[in-house]
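step=encode ok
step=design start
structure_in=
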């Protein structure tokens, strides 16, 4: 009991402390072929251990209440979002009879903008007590969970094997975090999905980057795991030049088979209508709050161009002037659809930042809010 108590104290220190962190998530992978780097502290085992063949390669790991930081905690949300995934072996023989009720909860959590804990997104998984030889799962923000909770869209599994549990963290289009939680079979086919989102999870204001992956509870002696990874979304390309000289290989949102496929994507999505439309304003007004009464914070010219057929913004920038300092903000993605405008900016000079605009463009007047509560207006052509 003393050893267990010490272990729990150590785990708590690792999970909830604020270690040094990078600004945005970076790619991470460990398939346990050579080590358990990035994890605390599953046991690495050879394929065939406990009659389980590794999902890939010759090694996997056996986890109890272990966790990973996916390469390190971060406090900034990447422009295209990111995903985490892990392969877990589900054995139907662990449910030999009706009434068997063994469970585990696996979380992939998000950080806040200071690198601290914000929220858990949890697969609640276990044997189905209502039927022998079957597992059942659902998704929630809580552990311990109830896998067969009828209010959480439970999904059954009836075949023994490896399954991928994937979290995709992305902008819902209005600056709010949404997390798509998929379970996939060994061939990569999505079997079932859940989408979790909370309106208070404003990206850049409340939501930062990745936190941990953690078996928060586990009633099994061990769980076989393999192929743990964090993938940062890169793309889509907006110019054919980005596809050339093997540039197409860098994109995973979407993935391309070759340079030609990348070029075709750009031509279809960004150049279907050669008469691209542009909004340009020589000045803008950015306020300290929801209304003009909050006081003016910044000014500066803004311009962006979009394809009216697809609605996709192809380029743009906003030169934000605060006092005597000009911040150069580049439009990295966005849409203009039926007068509704959504823009994502990345700042590279004089410091790094990223933020979003959501609003309308009517009669040459751009009106909306930056990062949720800050009024922004501009009148142009």
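sequence_out=
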């Amino acid at each position: 009991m003393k050893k267990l108590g010490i272990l729990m104290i150590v785990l708590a220190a690792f999970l909830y402390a604020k270690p040094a962190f990078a600004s945005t998530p970076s790619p991470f992978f460990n398939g346990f072929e050579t080590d358990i780097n990035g994890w605390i502290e599953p046991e690495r085992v050879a394929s065939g251990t406990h009659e389980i063949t590794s999902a890939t390669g010759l090694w996997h790991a056996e986890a109890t209440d272990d966790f990973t930081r996916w390469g390190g905690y971060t406090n900034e949300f990447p422009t295209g979002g990111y995903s985490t995934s892990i392969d877990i072996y589900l054995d139907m023989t662990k449910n030999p009879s009706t009434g068997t009720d063994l469970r585990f909860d696996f979380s992939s959590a998000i950080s806040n903008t200071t690198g601290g804990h914000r929220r858990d997104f949890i697969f609640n998984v276990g044997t189905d007590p209502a039927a022998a030889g079957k597992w059942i799962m659902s998704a929630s923000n809580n552990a311990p969970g109830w896998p067969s909770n009828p209010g959480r869209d439970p999904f059954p599994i009836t075949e023994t094997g490896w399954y991928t549990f994937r979290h995709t963290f992305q902008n819902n289009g209005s600056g709010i975090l949404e997390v798509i939680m998929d379970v996939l079979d060994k061939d990569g086919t999505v079997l079932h999905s859940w989408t979790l989102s909370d309106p208070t999870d404003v990206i850049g204001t409340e939501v930062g980057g990745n936190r941990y992956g953690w078996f928060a509870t586990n009633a099994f002696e061990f769980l076989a795991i393999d192929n743990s990874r964090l993938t940062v979304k890169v793309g889509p390309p907006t110019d054919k030049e980005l596809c050339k000289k093997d540039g197409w290989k860098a994109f995973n949102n979407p993935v391309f088979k070759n340079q030609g496929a990348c070029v075709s994507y750009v031509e279809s999505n960004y150049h279907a209508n050669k008469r691209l439309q542009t909004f340009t304003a020589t000045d803008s007004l950015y306020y300290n709050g929801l209304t003009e009464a909050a006081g003016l914070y910044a000014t500066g010219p803004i311009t962006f161009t979009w394809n009216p057929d697809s609605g996709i913004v192809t380029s743009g920038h906003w030169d934000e002037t605060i006092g005597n300092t000009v911040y150069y903000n580049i439009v990295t993605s966005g849409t203009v659809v039926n007068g509704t405008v959504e823009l994502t900016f990345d700042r590279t000079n004089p410091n790094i930042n990223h933020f979003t605009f959501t609003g309308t463009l009517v009669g040459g007047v751009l009106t909306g809010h930056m990062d949720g509560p800050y009024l922004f207006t501009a009148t142009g052509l």
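step=design ok
step=annotate ok -> Residues 1-10 have pLDDT under 50 and may be disordered.
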